[in-house]
Amino acid sequence: MLNTAHSEKKYWCKNAIIYEVYVDKFCDTFNGFADKLPYLVSLGVTCIHVLPHYPSPMIDDGYDIADYTSVRKDLGTIEDFKDFLLKAHDAGIKVMVDFVLNHTSTQHPWFLEASNSALSSKRDFYLWSKTATEYAKAPNLFPDLKEKNWIYNPKTDNYYFSTFHHAQADLNWNNPDVFDQMMSVLDFWVALGVDAFRLDAVSHLIKKEGTICDGLPETHNAIKKVRTYLDRKYDNIVLLAEVGDSIKESKKYFGKGDECHLVYNFPLVGRLLLALKKGEAVLPKKFIETLSGIPESCDWVNFLGHHDEMALGMTVKKERQGLFLHFDPENKYRFAIGISLRIATMLHKNNQDIIRAFGMLLGVPGSCIIYYGDEIGMENESLPLDQKDTRKSLGGKFDWSVAGQQVLDNNSLFLQISNIINNRNVNKNS
């Protein structure tokens, strides 16, 4: 029977402050995380989004998963993860992990078996073609990293489909066995105590001939099926949809309160950058009004800095070109249709501009992401000249000496941002 108790109350995720973080870059291991929780509490964090922690070849910063039910060895063990969860919960902080459900690493055992033989029982876990002509309207989202979406597999003399990096093979969500296996992954992490799952690249889940294979009705049906599965078994497990689309299209991922509880507000990024470029301190009222009209139990997730490029696909071409010229005049940080910039780098470490950016961000209705280190002014890392994936510059090592100094300095960037966050938390909960 459907568990409806939680539908009658507000979800914990409403107005959340979500700290998005790579464990290894922030505190080395899950064991080291416990000592850092007081820092996050003082910042006003209510949820930690642990960026991919799974065993992985790390070709795409962990979004190429080779094992869905384990912890990468350099981060610790499952027991270490459980201990981290308990201590986070004791500190009043929820924990979200990535659920990469569109694709696996090509080093995942399912793909290794499927790619070795056309007769493999795992063959239909993925999408294959003899001609590489299917789904021709689906865009190549990583043109700098691969020539096309169909990748040749010499062992069986055909092609597998890859929406993103060539080392990420798309799963076949029309196969009910894929659904069953992926639900068992959710069961595993919920049993450990995970509170929420970020549905990575979820709009690309279902592929259909003659379409762009993005945001299809069948994809919404699949999301509803995942949500129903969770609601029937558990209470208050939250789903966040990664959807890089317009406000109108993104709203569809809330459904009628029966799809995702949270959806990224990608169009906000362009609006914030345009305001910062013009020296403005408030966003247009008309844009804020477009965010209304979502189910009461749902929320937008607003952000500026995060682990991916600042996507500008929702801006018109003239606006976008102006933003590129203003914030990345040397063309050092372009990626896809965006720029891979840390807030401090983008704003030339001008604390007043950074605070203005955070003030606007935190003033938008909804939940909010703080990308680790942005609160202390972390900048982009330098990259080798041959590194085409500029997003790699966003994942630098957190400097605890700088953080320690700023925590004690009443005029520091950290203190001013934490004051904005904590005042917001008080007002939202009063």
UniProtKB/TrEMBL annotation:
Query: Hey, what's the signal peptide range on this chain?
Result: none
Q: Name one GO biological process term.
A: carbohydrate metabolic process
Per its UniProt record, what InterPro entries does this chain match? GH (IPR017853), GH13_cat_dom (IPR006047), O16G_dom_2 (IPR045857)
Which segments constitute the Glycosyl hydrolase family 13 catalytic domain? 20-424
Q: Name one Pfam family in it.
A: Alpha-amylase
Q: Which intervals of the chain form a coiled coil?
A: none
UniProt name for this protein: Glycosyl hydrolase family 13 catalytic domain-containing protein
